[in-house]
């Protein structure tokens, strides 16, 4: 098909999609219906205005729907990047992220899940991970992962004609159905596991006292029977195309994984992201590219630190800032800036177990990774889309990471591919992006730690739910505008919020009863990787011995 | 004298001043000499460049030296104003302060003393308050205050030909020699005491449970012999001209002070500041105007709160933001913006005893007013001087509030009026203001709580000094870039910093031995106020009965 004709056809098709109406509505969580009932007419009216604004933007771009670039970095708490005054507080410089923030919108109340796997799953599926059976996926073999029955944003956008690619951290399981190239991505370059394996399980990290007891070089293992209690022989980085086999790269049989491998892997993902950008920008179809760097997670000091802070993660955050600057410069250089929605954020709060030496600290909110406290789930998040999203703006509206699923689908005119047979927690926040602060559509969020509902946030109040058997009166209710560290339980608040929070919990539970959770994917690990090393095969065999 | 001729003469005189060399050098604290020895040539060279830049600015302004407007607000911790993302964290909006910050330089590492009186004294004298005998001045009569032998910035600038005015909080004592119009100000409108009297000792505050036990209306006083244990009959707001008598205004004999009086007083100071600006801008001489609002300190909820936060101080911070916006708009309207250095900051951290209901919280740093912790002494500080100070810039250099004394004197060509017979802690930071970050001249600060040296800060390290009799090894050393809340005492730091901090303490103590502290001013309270109410006279008589 010649290019101009194909463009014309695409424009016509996207016009058709715009007027199609889904047969069934999306199933929301109970709280959404409760709030929607208070705003129905206003939201319907605004949706029409948003739709025509999106159509106008497409028109300006030859009918092409917007590209989406989603950069998600690891374990950085709210305030640690993109906010100049706080750069001085920490002695870390993030000039490129600061500049990106100045060109776009700061989502100052973005909530994630409290840990890597759950946040990524929430984004990919638009659902709280509890609904998909996803929990924090540990390092070492698990034979589990994101189930094939889950519908990811990559599948939604693929069906709608987007080209898709995933580069970097994935962390959705070690079974074949969970791999990104089997979950909607045309191309994927990713490690099978996470940074505990990649950044901590190295001789350098062991000698720097950052992962104790794992490395045999730092202590004798001569009384141990089980040689597999210390995870080893794991698959590292692989690359694959949609539906194809994966190949492990840059590690030979018998070779020890080192900090140098980790740094090469990070540099490779950065390079591959730039390459994918260049490739995808040329296509007629719009693209969805996600780049999930492994940095700033890092546990070894460089030869010469660059940041004033000097912490081993703080330093890599400065490297990552350079790299993000390169990516944005490439978007601009390719001439696709006006038609590319870029979202940059972190997946959850800091690893506070390494506070002090990592250079990252709790800063404003208490807690970090694994925690339902604000420090675990509040992150820096910035959106840039010149011409569509107001530069230099900010929003105090609550947004949950799952909202990106629904919002991306809406912006890509792919909403009809969102499944209608399960609860979708993600709320369409297109109006917030296009019309600015106070156009958000949630003033609440449920916070889980794995399968346990730990907190409910509504407006500026947050209830820490009482543990099993504890009376409701024992629940702490905090005003997080006045008490960002959630330290002062106030009976003055809970006397009236208690009842309202109970109602919210009921609405949430009723939606679950009507729409039961899915099961986690299960299987034999590492199927579909064509060049397993002998030590990996041995690890699989031992693992399967009790399955 | 006709105006053009007077201007010409002033220009000639200021030229003469510029080439004069003081007979004696300023006496610095020991640490300054220690650091200066490492930078002597570079600093001398830069001083020449700074001098000619200042001369250039004067030339652009018809030979007139720059006006100085110093706005100092009360008890606001670092991060609570001027930083947009943190506005969202707290649910407080400070758009005018944010905009002011965007037009000027953010001093992101401004240190104050931990409380109102000491910070103000440090600014006024350029000296740590311990050297002047000044401590926190309590509400109620004390018969003490800033001594007449101290040389204030108003006296320095007055001698150099500046017109001077003080509006708002003063808090330097209740004896005649301490009054602002006896300490260098041509005009002063100020309350004799502070907000415990003005904002807490009202029926409204007592009924809101914010000052317990003081107000007779909330409990019976029928077993009390001493009717003066509860401070009463205190002088409220007065106005005066240099060397003249003060008159109390807006309170009649027998009248109860209420929240309405407090609000009127605040509104009056705002109005008077605008009036002074208009008056002073017309004069041939440059001016030094200081406006020290009593807000945001406030303890009573308004009829209808305006901020999302809703705290009774948070709300007044929004009011103050409006007011500061008005003042800057007036500076701009008067056409004096380019020749007016405006400094806006807070005097110390929040009153954390009211955290929760006040709406102010510790946010980033731990601690607040009265504390040597960063939360007590780190504040938001912004400088605007278009054409001289780079707009939108920031500096992570350490600055102490006393530096403003020396810097203002230098910028006003009044350096020769700085006394040479005592230690001046304030360091000339003109190079930092004009040349930007990394041109600051201190990387340390000593932190006192009243007369006790509690902490020493050097670069990113901070030692909490061990208490009397405690071994030096018990001292905590903190890295405040990595651990802003000073929670993780690290032997890894103190093993080497311990010795260096001991040397710093010695250098500081030797300077004190060579230059002993002055004595606090003492006398009969309220002398020089011409219209004392009968209840005030009775309070003085009782007070004097044991003196």
Automatic annotation (TrEMBL), chains A, B:
PANTHER family: ARYLSULFATASE FAMILY MEMBER, ARYLSULFATASE G. The keyword Signal applies. Gene3D superfamilies: 3.30.1120.10, Alkaline Phosphatase, subunit A. This is Sulfatase. It holds the Pfam family Sulfatase. Keywords: Calcium, Hydrolase, Metal-binding, Signal. The keyword Hydrolase applies. Residues 66-412 form the Sulfatase N-terminal domain. Its cofactor is Ca(2+). One of its GO terms (molecular function) is arylsulfatase activity. Residues 1-23 form the signal peptide. Belongs to the sulfatase family.
